């Protein structure tokens, strides 16, 4: 199954016959294209390889075979300095927020601007505060990461990942471990990124509520390969027992959680 949207417009990311892993492949022969402006969710059970794939497409783990084409360039064919310049057009929010505990939120978010631009201090400060406001953290610029909630740390990490206005943003389990209300707020923040910044988003997640709200397409991995690609509704109707079971098992848990929360 293939979304019409994925076949139109500017292709911003492409995997060509890609194999990823460490001593041996975790995923093999991955062919995938992502169009500018899409939100694509990478799905699958624990150990299926989706996070390993993410590490390869963000430049942290060279592929075992095949190519990663980003903005029309074969990323791993580039010299390291050229690859780094290319990757500055992307941003990544890791599953663990990776904020520096000894730095304020303002300093954490401002770090890419200070390291990679020559902007004046006053401009960096203003940009940082505006970005914190965009993710729903106005007035918290002087807080330390240890003094805010897990959901707020996730938002701050998204602010830092987006501070250079990347064209392509990668998120690894952005709402993992958060309660449903906070997770919904993270989803709204990600939608704001696309609306306000025109960003393309690639999200590794297993949260069905988030997938349904965010994803134009979902890519399901299993048994070392892509099992299916399509809208969430298409995948939920897929006759493959494992794919159908994955979506409906998650849906049942989500419904049970919602009922329990309503009763409490």
Compact overview of the structure:
This protein has 264 residues and is of the alpha/beta class.
Could you characterize the architecture of this molecule?
The chain has 264 residues and is of the alpha/beta class. The chain folds into two domains: 1-89 and 173-264, P-loop containing nucleotide triphosphate hydrolases (Rossmann fold), CATH 3.40.50; 96-165, no CATH class. 41% of the residues lie in helices and 23% in strands. It is built from nine helices and ten strands. The protein has helices spanning 50-57, 80-87, 105-116, 121-134, 150-162, 180-197, 208-214, 232-236, 241-263, and strands at residues 11-21, 25-35, 39-43, 65-70, 73-74, 90-93, 168-172, 200-204, 217-222, 225-230. A six-stranded mixed sheet has the order 6-7-8-3-9-10. The protein has a four-stranded antiparallel sheet with strand order 2-1-4-5, with helices on one face. β7, α6 (180-197) and β8 (200-204) form a beta-alpha-beta unit. α6 packs parallel to α7. It is globular and about 55 Å long. Mean pLDDT is 86; it is low at 1-8 and 250-264.
Low-confidence stretches: 1-8, 250-264
Strand content: 15-25%
Q: Mind telling me which CATH architecture of the largest domain this is?
A: 3-Layer(aba) Sandwich
Alpha plus pi helix count: 9
Major β-sheet annotation: 6 strands, mixed
Q: Count every beta strand, where a strand is a DSSP E run of 2 or more residues.
A: 10
Strand order of the largest sheet: 6-7-8-3-9-10
Return the CATH class of the largest domain.
Alpha Beta
Structural class: alpha/beta
What would you give as the CATH superfamily of the largest domain?
Answer: P-loop containing nucleotide triphosphate hydrolases
The string of secondary-structure elements, in order, is EEEHEEHEHHHEHEHEEHH
Rg over C-alpha atoms, rounded to the nearest angstrom: 19 Å
Q: How widely separated are the two ends? A: 40 Å
CATH fold type of the largest domain:
Rossmann fold
Q: How helical, in percent, are the residues?
A: 40-55%
Overall pLDDT: 86
Number of individual domains: 2
Taken from the alpha-carbon principal axes, the silhouette is: globular
